[in-house]
Specification:
181 residues, three-stranded antiparallel β-sheet, elongated
Length: 181
């Protein structure tokens, strides 16, 4: 199980915190002895899209770490004040400069070892004019046999693409949930 233990000081009063199980709880939390505040560490949400143009998918080559130079779907951390779909749309614009029509949620992938949950929506590209932002070296369309499978940045991207191409062959898209080690 993922144990972040990222809190060193109380966000409320600035005093040092210690990890202990508060009364009426079932796991260790960052607890402030000075003011009694309990701080919770929760998974981060990664949101993105699987943009499609006919028989091709849009991938972005990363210009940032982790996995600089590897290929990924346009995705990133969800921001406060946005829905998962709004975050996925924003990330697609920021990373690929792609105009899309959002479709259904396609994959929900739990990545417990790093404390993340990844949400990927299917999306229909409205055109092929891309304007990648600073986090992307290039944005390109790939047919299934052209996907750089050995150079994909993350297991969640591989899983989402694999499920997409399997569903496309069946002629029916579903919703997929999985745990990624």
């Amino acid at each position: 199980m993922f144990k972040a233990r990222s809190f060193k000081h109380c966000k409320t009063c600035g005093s040092p915190v210690s990890y202990s199980i508060p009364p009426d709880d079932n796991r260790e939390r960052a607890t402030c002895a000075a003011c009694g505040a309990i701080h919770y560490e929760n998974p981060l949400n990664v949101v993105g899209t699987l943009p499609v143009w006919h028989d091709q998918v849009l991938l972005c080559r990363r210009n940032i770490e982790p996995r600089h130079g590897f290929w990924t779907l346009p995705a990133g951390f969800m921001e406060l004040g946005e829905t998962t779909a709004a975050g996925a749309l924003r990330e697609t614009d920021e990373e690929a400069g792609a105009r899309i029509e959002m479709q259904a949620l396609f994959t929900l992938l739990n990545v417990v070892r790093v404390g993340q949950v990844h949400f990927f929506y299917r999306a229909r590209l409205l055109d092929t004019d891309f304007a990648p932002g600073p986090e992307t070296i290039e944005a390109r369309l790939f047919r299934e046999d052209e996907v750089p499978w050995d150079d994909l940045a993350f297991p969640t991207v591989r899983e989402t693409l694999r499920r997409f191409f399997d569903d496309r062959r069946r002629g029916q898209f579903g919703f997929h949930m999985a745990d990624i080690d």
